[in-house]
């Protein structure tokens, strides 16, 4: 009914006419007088309108274009051929080929039913290329990303008016270098397949200085695919062999540490199917399509959760990088995915303890000992600090505890000496931390959900650099006062909290990261299901 209402409303005005009647010569204009609605509908018009009503984008397009068909007319063959060519590229995007009904595109549209079938494929392709196949939140509730597509009815109009409709459709895909690098990598490591007749390399953990006969088949498999490392002692894991292993790892999308461990040897032995290697790339392409409306060449902060790294990108190039600690793998502590704008650098921040931490972790301690967690103040609803001897903590539960907890600015404040605010409903932000030792770990998922920054002062200087010639002096003037101070960023800096287990470096080499939250598998499954939903 909604789609039919859109068509009916848009057809009240004939295409090309104004909504206000033009005055006759010599008469004052009649304000708000509408043109008579269109009433002359043919049987085919009615059939097309009713068929299109089920798809809002088609209802809007046909309704605003006088119920003129797309694939019935003088350019029908050209437009259909453009759509056939575009949908044939689906595997290059990690999109299952079955998602677009090739049978509906195989013949000329001879009636309204065929017209609508082909128009549905057009809408699906346009939606997929400009915002992805899968609604982000349907995969995991902690994927908070909002997809912003251009209006599909406008894209259809531009498509049918384009002098090169095939190029128009192909150009709808993201053109960011990262997306193109992922496309090139999809299925692109067949050249790393070792000849089947070679002996398998034994599973081990080979490092420089080790000597073993098992290193011989390791060398042979590497040499067969172009990663040669001649040595006087072929059973010795020497520096040239470590370099060859690192080069192979980089080409295979593995961490290039030069150590031949079980994962590297499994790849060399062909134990990892091609589909499994490509899964991380397929889901990365979908995630990039979700972000198709973002300007990823403009200055922004990019936090890739599985990489445990924050970057500043400016003009398409990385200008800053630091390690981060992200939320732990417990579902209620995982860092969500979304984009926002960093508005403030807060120096000497107070820590307002989230209620979930207050009632789950601190209230039981206070019930056992009112002087527990003495570094925190107990605060009422008006922000007043309440003496603990005035509170019987045993009277309260997690549901009715009426107080908040807060930590004063200090060197040992849980937020450290600076935090970076982008107001959001989930109370997620970037911040310093007194717990520095965690940045030395390879796996850095330890927080309650917020993102701890390894080099917070340097990040502050970088973010403030657009509004002052001396960002360090600006920052330290506030820091030295000891009081909480909010430094407004002008302009705000976009921040993207993302989740890519495969992503290209600046040189286009695909790097792989552990799926710490297990979010890839359900997205992969959703993509495969979408391929069957034609």
Overview of this structure, please?
Helices cover 34% and strands 14% of the residues. The protein is an alpha+beta fold and 534 residues long. Strands 1-2-3-11-9-8-4-12 form an 8-stranded mixed beta barrel. Helix 9 (177-185) runs antiparallel to helix 13 (274-290). The longest helix has 20 residues, at 112-131.
Sheet with the most strands?
A: 8 strands, mixed, barrel
Strand content: 5-15%
Radius of gyration: 30 Å
Quote the average pLDDT. Answer: 89
Helix % is: 25-40%
Number of strands: 14
Poorly predicted sequence stretches spanning 5 or more consecutive residues = 12-35
Count of DSSP-assigned helices: 17
Distance between termini?
Answer: 23 Å
Task: Tell the overall outline.
Answer: globular
- Structural class of the helices, strands and pairings? alpha+beta
Major sheet: order of its strands? 1-2-3-11-9-8-4-12
Brief sketch in words of this structure:
The chain is of the alpha+beta class and about 525 residues long. Helix content is about 35%, strand content about 15%. It is globular and about 85 Å long.
List the helices and strands and how they pair.
Blueprint: H1 2-10, H2 43-52, H3 56-64, H4 76-87, H5 112-131, H6 136-139, H7 152-161, H8 165-170, H9 177-185, H10 215-224, H11 239-252, H12 262-268, H13 274-290, E1 300-304, E2 309-314, E3 317-327, E4 338-347, E5 351-352, H14 355-368, E6 377-379, E7 404-407, E8 418-421, E9 430-431, E10 445-447, E11 451-453, H15 456-464, H16 471-481, E12 485-498, E13 502-504, E14 510-512, H17 520-532
Parallel strand pairs: 1-12, 3-10, 9-11
Antiparallel strand pairs: 1-2, 2-3, 3-11, 4-8, 4-12, 5-7, 6-7, 8-9, 13-14
